[in-house]
Amino acid sequence: MWHIITAVALFVTYKIYVKILNCHSHHDAVLTGKVVIITGGSFGVGYKAAKDLAARGAKVILGCRDLDKGRNAQEAIIKVTGNKNVAYRKLDLASLESVRRFVKDFKDSGTRLDILINNAGAVKTGTVHTNDDIVESLQVNYLGGFLLTVLLVPILKQSGNGRIVNVSSILHRLGKMDLEKINCENVYNSFQMYCNSKFCNILFTKELAKRLSGTGVIVNSVEPGFIRTKTYSKNASLLENLSYLVQKLFLKSSSEGAQTLLYLALSDECEMVNGKHFSGCRETTISDKAEYGEMASKLWKFSEETVRLKCEETIM
Length: 316
Known about the structure:
The chain has 316 residues and is of the alpha/beta class. It has a single domain, classed as Rossmann fold. It is built from nine helices and eight strands. Strands 3-2-1-4-5-6-7-8 form an eight-stranded mixed β-sheet, with helices on both faces. Helix 2 (44-55) crosses helix 8, helix 4 packs parallel to helix 5 and helix 5 runs parallel beside helix 6 (190-211). It is globular and about 50 Å long. It starts with a helix and ends in a 10-residue tail after the last helix. It holds the Pfam family adh_short. Keywords: Oxidoreductase.
């Protein structure tokens, strides 16, 4: 009997702890006239963030690898928010050419840019290289976003008070940084590569914040937490619905996971905060490894070379 009581008490304590860590971005910000680009905005945390931003009147551009999913997300957001100023554009972060084409088309449109949310990410099986000769998980989770951000920074500067939100993960603390091995096949397993790529996002945020100091553009990183992916279905198997129940009890919803992204994108409290890491709408610590020496600047140089950034494109 006492075992059951203890288990229940521990579970309740855990749920209270998670509730405290969760936050809701109750900001009354109106974004009419503002423009947002969000990657990975067709589902999950990215979709919830895009929907909230559209509801505030922003023009929201979804950068999507899968155009069918992008179209479905666009239609759903317009239906829910009534904001017809929602668009989707082809953006495959696993292709440097696709990133450059996306940025060129955006620049040619003459549109301002106020908020960039680098949310896209995935755990890729294996360590296969893309056509750009980059390990796919490293390119999708980090280097594609690095190139996208650097190319869009000039437009963010023109708009004034621009914000960049880089989505990392609590798993960045397990990341390793060996620039001679990070882009090699069969050195790390897919899970370790994911952790490495999220660690890169932390270092990228730190270095970018230094380079953007005094420009009016700020950048911070966020860990949304562990997000449940399963949904209940009457037609699903018992095992699938059991998995849903476990996730329902212990993991965050996509809406809860989106709150810190929105906090960093909208809150007045973040106007002077630059190069920091957040969880639960609060600044939090990063891996001690990220504080070592010149690791962030060395990663920046590696990134410039790997994505073949031109001299005139770099951020000094």
